[in-house]
Amino acid sequence: MATQRLATPEPRVPLSRERVLRAAIGLADEGGIESVSMRKLGQALGVEAMSLYNHVANKDDILGGMVDIVESGIEVLPPGADWKRALRTTAISAHDILERHPWAASLSLSAIGARPARWRYMNAILRCLREAGFSAETTDLAYHALESHIAGFTLWAAQLDFDEAELPALAAAFLEQVPGDELPYVVEHVEQHLKERSPDNPGAFAFGLDLILDGLERMLSPA
């Protein structure tokens, strides 16, 4: 008679700060930042909410840690890279990452706890501008121009959260309310959104970014 083998239970993955923060990111990605609570986080991890405090201090600590993990994925080129290419790469990477985690855009503007990834990102942009030859004063202005574009555009885009398939119906409903004879350029603008983008169209974010970078380049090489 064959001996029946008992199934060996899978070892339980120990709780850690990393697991807690990544679980919180999963909750926020799925249901928005308001869905992140100690109770829901404990349920997602299969533990009592109180046990989370062995790894995180409080809700603000969780929020800061979530953003730091997200921003740690931003691509930063090493010293010595062409300044314009480096800034473009970093800015597009930051926008893409924040777009994948819409809740993080506004949260990243809040000074919550230690933010090593944020500091690394800031230092890379500032270093790039200074090494390119910009003064400390112009670097300050350029940094804020770039940050305003990245954060502002991403926050604006997050407010326009709709499925691309819904666009024709939304545009049609909007145009029904617009007096086309009085506002012909508004109608034209809406119609542009319905057209397929040409291969050489960089998209609104990259277009605005290139305007900033081209302007900075002209400051370095005045005619």
Please characterize this protein's 3D structure:
The protein has ten helices and no strands. It is an all-alpha fold. The protein has two domains: 17-56, Homeodomain-like (Arc Repressor Mutant, subunit A); 71-220, Tetracycline Repressor, domain 2, CATH 1.10.357.10. It is flat. The mean pLDDT is 88.
Helix count, DSSP H or I runs of 4 or more residues:
10
What's the CATH C level of the largest domain? Mainly Alpha
Rg over alpha carbons: 23 Å
Write the CATH homologous superfamily of the largest domain.
Tetracycline Repressor, domain 2
- Order of helices and strands, N to C? HHHHHHHHHH
Distinctive features:
Arc Repressor Mutant, subunit A; 2 domains; Tetracycline Repressor, domain 2; mainly alpha; 0% strand; flat; 10 helices; 223 residues; single chain; 63% helix
Give the secondary structure arrangement, pairings included.
Elements: H1 17-31, H2 38-45, H3 59-71, H4 83-100, H5 102-107, H6 116-132, H7 136-159, H8 167-177, H9 184-194, H10 204-220
Helix pairs in contact: 1-2, 1-3, 4-6, 4-7, 4-10, 6-7, 7-10, 8-9
Describe the structure concisely.
The protein is an all-alpha fold.
